[in-house]
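Tip: read the tokens left to right.
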């Protein structure tokens, strides 16, 4: 079997580069060929994964949630994608938490060598892909505008600092959401579509699954030109969502569950895909059931 190992040398304060010999040696216990590539810039991992998709039996990769997104973008259009193994090295590692993959290098490598293959879902957004979250509105730009130097210095706290700096004044935007026969048209400050359980390091969607053919959506409603009290109310609704989770009712939050959503929005609305800047404006989001062949810890159930 042929394996392609691609990693982000900047992610995780460079710890993967320091353990590269160990990782390659261990991968050689399972795969006959192990080719290695270190990314150099944003988009490199997507390109490398796309080129490797029909040449290798496995793509093993390391980085944060953004790196995971790039790999999914790269193989999303492949008819028969190779198996994926993940060695998390990012700041938050939401997808690793959802899949039960250890954050330690040794634990993640062991998962690649001895784990089970499971087919999990991903999302298609217009002609792009995402693995676990698509969101727009308050605080969603922080994950891709936070400087890498700050993430290295203070870890996930850097996202909070960046979010406060950029979101002291919430943007209110109009959305029209269709899911089957259900339709909601409202002003909003935050929309999120989830495939899996963890978002921004929190157990936001506790009973969610990354392999059930369904997505969960939450929209925080807000009036146009809100006064200070309504802004505080929206902030409390957002805090309620992340503290208590998607399934705990909140008057200002409308929830949907389904396999496909159509969301009409102005071009000023920018969508976040797995922590990376995505497209702007209206989107059609659907689940691609069992699209990703993922290596997870042996005996993992209920993902």
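Filled-in amino acids:
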């Amino acid at each position: 079997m042929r394996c392609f190992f691609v990693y982000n040398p900047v992610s995780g304060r460079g710890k993967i580069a320091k353990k590269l010999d160990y990782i390659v040696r261990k991968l050689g216990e399972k795969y006959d060929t192990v080719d290695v590539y270190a990314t150099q810039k944003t988009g490199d991992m997507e390109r490398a994964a796309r080129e490797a998709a029909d040449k290798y039996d496995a793509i093993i990769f390391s980085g944060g949630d953004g790196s995971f997104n790039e790999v999914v973008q790269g193989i999303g259009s492949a008819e028969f994608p190779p198996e994926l193994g993940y060695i998390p090295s990012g700041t938050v590692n939401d997808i690793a938490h959802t899949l039960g993959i250890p954050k330690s290098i040794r634990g993640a490598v062991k998962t690649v060598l001895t784990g089970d293959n499971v087919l999990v879902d991903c999302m298609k957004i217009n002609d792009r892909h995402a693995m676990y979250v698509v969101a727009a509105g308050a605080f969603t730009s922080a994950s891709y505008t936070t400087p890498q130097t700050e993430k290295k210095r203070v870890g996930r706290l850097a996202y909070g600092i960046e979010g406060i700096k950029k979101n002291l004044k919430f943007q209110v935007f109009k959305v029209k959401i269709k899911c089957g026969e259900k339709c909601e048209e409202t002003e909003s400050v935050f929309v999120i579509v989830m495939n899996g359980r963890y978002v921004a390091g929190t157990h936001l969607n506790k009973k969610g699954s990354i392999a059930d053919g369904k997505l969960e959506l939450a929209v925080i409603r807000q009036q146009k030109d809100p006064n200070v009290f309504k802004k505080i109310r929206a902030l409390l609704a957002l805090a309620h969502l992340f503290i208590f989770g998607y399934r705990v009712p909140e008057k200002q939050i409308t929830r949907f569950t389904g396999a496909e959503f159509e969301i009409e929005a102005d071009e000023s609305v920018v969508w976040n895909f797995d922590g990376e800047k995505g497209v702007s404006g209206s989107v059609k989001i659907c689940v691609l059931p069992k699209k990703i062949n993922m290596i997870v810890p042996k005996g993992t159930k209920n993902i």
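DSSP finds ten helices and 15 strands in the chain. The first strand starts at residue 2 and ends at 7.
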